[in-house]
Amino acid sequence: MRLDVVAKESHFVDHLAPVWMALPPKVRGRFYFRGHGDCRPVEGMIRGQPPASSNPTLVAAAGDLIFARRLGRRVAIMEHGAGQSYGGILVSAGGKRLRGPWREHSSYAGGANRDAELFLHPGPHPAARDAARYPDARVEVVGCPKLDQLPRKAAPSKVPVVAVSFHWNCHIAPETRWALPDFERHVRSLAADRRYQVIGHGHPRAAVKLSAWYERCGIEFVPTFGEVCERADVYVIDNSSTLFEFAATGRPVVLMNARLYRRPVEHGLRFWQAATVGVQANVRDGLIGAVTEALRDTPDQQDARERALDLVYGYRSGAAARAAGVLREWAS
């Protein structure tokens, strides 16, 4: 039986395409891109809605999972990032444990309505959450297929290139909100500092708004993360899987902490267990000092980055082939 792939957004394709190409041609069915706009071209891609079918189907997001299930398809889901989730519990001053609605959101591991037969995860954190929530499903840690295809910078720049990026302003939890309102003036100050060349990037869902804002600031907007990896010496970001992906190329990152981000709530990974992946930048301190510190990339910083990446990724290479092998076994 052939395996189909369904994706609605372009950044899902970035994660699914390496796995698709790692499958033998005889196993590939159809790769359906059911979204709009530009996306990475993939061999065999069909732009349009998939039909109802019982074919085994791989997706990279909860929305596509729910959509494929409604079509009668058997579904496997692979994370389209680091597997960040928002299952932390807020303990009030009076000792009351408060569980927010973010714990149940289907977009994140361990959430509701993620009834897949197979879960493919980059690391142990999201795998444990889905395994606990869906004990009858198969859960495998395979790594992040996107890592093998990320460009490395060819040579250091005479003037360090600083890439600044923001998440889209998602209202599911305080930690999913972007840090732009808090760091807007700090990004402008960084761009005005002649010691650095600043380029701008952002989550695809915020790209239109962010590109206009960067233009007003006189900052070049770089639409693809691949180009960011080719050009940047350091990556400044609030909350995105790309912070770990960039760090996995062996370069420093700076994490912008918005005022909304709650220190007492431990979600894991970016908040806060693996936040040691980079230099922390709080609103009151700005960005210039954090960027200067990150670019030193001392042995202690490198060790902290590696330890954090070990929390995020079960494997740092070979994920596409590993995922393809699991999918072939499952689909058959």
Please give a quick description of this structure:
With 332 residues, the chain is α/β, with parallel strands linked by helices. The chain is 32% helix and 19% strand. The chain has ten helices and 15 strands.
Please describe what this structure looks like.
By secondary structure, this protein is α/β, with parallel strands linked by helices. It has two domains: 3-144 and 315-331, 3-Layer(aba) Sandwich (Rossmann fold); 161-312, Rossmann fold (3-Layer(aba) Sandwich), CATH 3.40.50. The protein has ten helices and 15 strands. It has helices at 10-22, 62-70, 124-133, 180-192, 207-217, 225-231, 242-247, 288-296, 299-312, 319-331, and strands spanning 3-7, 28-33, 45-47, 56-59, 74-78, 90-91, 97-98, 118-121, 138-141, 161-166, 197-202, 220-221, 234-237, 253-257, 279-282. The strands form three sheets. A seven-stranded parallel beta sheet has the order 3-2-1-4-5-8-9, sandwiched between helices. It has a six-stranded parallel beta sheet with strand order 12-11-10-13-14-15, with helices on both faces. Strands 6-7 form a two-stranded antiparallel sheet. Helix 7 links the parallel strand 13 (234-237) and strand 14. It is globular. 49% of the residues are buried. The mean pLDDT is 94.
